[in-house]
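User: Fold both of these, please.

Assistant: Here is the first one.
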Amino acid sequence: MLITHELTHVFHGQTIRDHSPGRVKDISWFEEGLAVYVAGQLGPSEIHDVQAALQAHNVSGSLHSIATSDSILLRYSMMGSLAMYIDRTYGRAKLKGLVRLDSQEEILSSLGVTEPQFLDGWKLFMLHNAGISR
């Protein structure tokens, strides 16, 4: 899983349009989430942890704050669940297409949502539909 995770980062780095230093900082939630999801590091236990945090209202209101939350294990699970949400809600083709985009603004625009709309949809998905098999 670790090798797949790291190779996903390599693939993403080679696919993204703009490799400029600092350019992709605002999509660390997507970069890490994609790697966690592709590597199969988001299992039932991790999904349960995300659901518990959401139920306890321990998830802040921005993608940046999710990507920088204090608990590293929960942080990676949450980011992986964001990628899972995109895959299951918007489809695999859309998830693959996002890999070339280099900003959060472009990703959210491609999904046709604002950040609050995306987060609201993800929270509902995680609380009600995350148990659906791939």
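And the second sequence with its predicted structure:
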Amino acid sequence: MRVAILDLGTNTFSLLIVDIQQNTYKEVHHAREVVKLGHESESITNNIISPEAFQRGVTALCNLAAIIKKFEVDAVKALATSAIREAENRQDFISEVRKQAEINIEIISGAKEAELIYYGNRLAFTMTEEPYLIMDIGGGSNEFIIASNSTILWKQSFKLGVARLLSMFKPENPISEKTLQAVNNYLTAELQPLLTELKKYNIHTLLGSSGAFESIVDMIGKEKTSDEKSGYHIDLEDYFMISKKTVHSTSQQRELMPGLIPMRRDMIVLSYISINFILKNSSISKLGVSAYSLKEGAISMFFKNH
């Protein structure tokens, strides 16, 4: 059976096409379209998909629909997350996509998003029975999951995605100490539920889920470890070195940084600030990065349901 999974995020729409056979799958094709649904001023904080972003999103899904048609898939699952989930004009967007791209969008809750991210990470990384903190940095929301290889202990989605923070705080170039402190104060207030849970569990490992974390891997120049299917182990000294350099950089300096793709140049500073906040407020001493996330988690659930 050939299945297409679409992850309709705030910054990118990602497509993964796989062939499923018994309890395994083989990747056939993957593609990505940059949409930046929250790019226009205040649109994401006002819970609206701007006319420009609306058109970018529809065009992107028409492009991805053409790829799906070319590969003759048996089933399509299109999962929409934070930006579409929160948008007041989401039904207009869903209707237009159904009309033009012939794709039916399913909006998933933040809790469901976190669950799928967990299953994706579990496919990529060799987890044990000890508790891990999984962190997924999106454009509209960040998901946090405390889990072991066998169960989810706690999960929650927070409206703290980097596109949302960028719109709220409008950091200077480079970010000022005042704005840096304001972001940290905001994270402290918003992440109290997570900070409470972190005190309950003896967590040593943070697993970063694709997206911005993959950019960090590329910026450090880390090669994939041979003992993981699609995961990386990052030395925290390497992480803190590149983090310090990036947080205090100008946009012009980030243009020259190896491994940092153009799409993430504006948002990577807030990604580092968010990760640093977690490392500072926990007992975490190890950092892993999973190349898998929601799409792979949806495939895992597909196995489970079929």
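The chain has two domains: 2-108, 120-294.
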